[in-house]
Amino acid sequence: MSAYSFKDMANFIKGFCHLPQPTCFGEYRGISKLEKTLQSRKVSAPEGSYTARLFLDEKLLRAKIMEEAEELCNAKEKKDIAFEAADLIYFALTKAVGSGVTLADIERSLDAKSLKVTRRQGDAKGPWAAKKGISNGKTEKSQKETEVVKEAESIPKSNDNKAGLENGRIHMRRYNAATTSATELKEALQRPSQKSTEMIMGIVNPIIKEVRTRGDAALLEYTQKFEKATTLKSPVIKAPFPQSLMNLPKETIEAIDVSFENIRKFHAAQKEEKPLRVETMPGVVCSRFSRPIERVGLYVPGGSAVLPSTALMLGVPAMVAGCKKIVLASPPRADGSITPEIVYIAHKVGAESIVLAGGAQAVAAMAYGTESVSKVDKILGPGNQFVTAAKMYVSNDTNAGVSIDMPAGPSEVLVIADKDANPAFVASDLLSQAEHGPDSQVVLIAIDLSEAKLKAIEDELHRQATALPRVDIVRGAIEHSVTLVVRDLEEAMKLSNEYAPEHLILQIKDAAKAVDLVQNAGSVFIGEWTPESVGDYSAGVNHSLRKFP
Description:
Layout: H1 3-10, H2 31-44, H3 50-56, H4 58-74, H5 78-98, H6 103-114, H7 126-131, H8 140-145, E1 165-166, E2 169-170, E3 173-176, H9 182-188, H10 197-214, H11 216-226, E4 236-238, H12 250-268, E5 276-281, E6 284-288, E7 295-299, H13 308-321, E8 325-329, H14 340-348, E9 353-355, H15 359-368, E10 378-380, H16 385-396, E11 403-404, E12 412-417, H17 423-434, E13 441-447, H18 451-466, H19 471-478, E14 482-486, H20 489-499, E15 503-507, E16 523-526, H21 532-537
Parallel strand pairs: 3-14, 7-8, 7-10, 8-9, 10-11, 12-13, 12-15, 13-14, 15-16
Antiparallel strand pairs: 1-2, 4-9, 5-6
């Protein structure tokens, strides 16, 4: 509901509120303002006032909700529909506030509904269908049979959701390649579907257009809406960054410094020492030389986890390449602050600024520039489906004049294990990516493992997963993760190359000798003492798996 609808409604209602203002909608600032007003009224409304009665009389409130819903259904003109919709929202939000439900709770529920794995046909429920003379034409059984798989959920699993569980234990589905058809194996290795492009772009496009046309004002509004950082006054922190924003424990600083130096060494070694020159025929000399991209925007995800490692993986290569202007973007916390690890890394790589925003709004700000955000020439870094969609949108807009790295998908890992593998290590490597998000996928290819060995790995997976604070996220990933049992290394590598994992871990005897068999993988971890987490953080290689400036 737009603010216009609430203003329009105010023209028809005078003296509705007991306070000296036109209506209970305060200064007409939309649903968020209404929520704050109702929360205040819940505590301060005078005894006997209309609002107090609504909070105290369940039957009255129920009657008003039903009344307004009916009036909305009967409305025909645009103006009347807006008027009645505003009324319904008012009473519905009164019900929510009275029950301790916030707009944030409602938004999370909306997100969950839009990302459900299965869909109903959309028919009205029995009593309401009967009331209006509607025949759904399907029994409950036939309706269930027609449910189809849609997108993978991107929210953690609740305690009453049995996803990722078998007999109460966290468990990956198991297939034996010898008794499973090629078609079934291919289906088992299907990655979780994501939201449809049309659905995502329908959300992303308006955000990009708002930031492009309204600049800082729109950027702040979206940050306040999505990150709940309502006290934020500026969307950017400029260098030099205050020491107060970088206060960290000594051991954290030392860990960042070690990772920084390892990443710097590895990427510095990749720089061309001199231009390539080739005389293709007498008198014809061709050469190739590289120059750093002048202005880069580096997106560091926030949300459910802080990722200083991503700031390192993006910022250090940009510094080594010699990019003149480095802009970081990362969602702030609800109090408007940014995690000190990110600020410290931005300082170390010589960043010009940090944009306090995430999602499509951050991408748009860096692509087009705002009053405070510098426009960049290339945007790099991973993010959720909305970040990825926004990056693709701006890279296709010739007026933006910005390129991107490559679209990032959900995290994934494939572990190949033989009888010499340590079950605890195998489970740890699987969980290292499963905890990234409910839409992640992990695959274990077990080479001729006995039932006892397979059970040992499954027991470790359950034990370690239940000890993790992000166990509900892990369960979402395990729901579409699998174990494949194969005869030999050749069969394992064939399946791995067809799957082409983001991370491939070889927990097998003489792992180094198997590297020549690897054709398709983002990064390869060789041997049981090369955990995926080391590569993600501090070995020196780049976990973002992108082509950098």
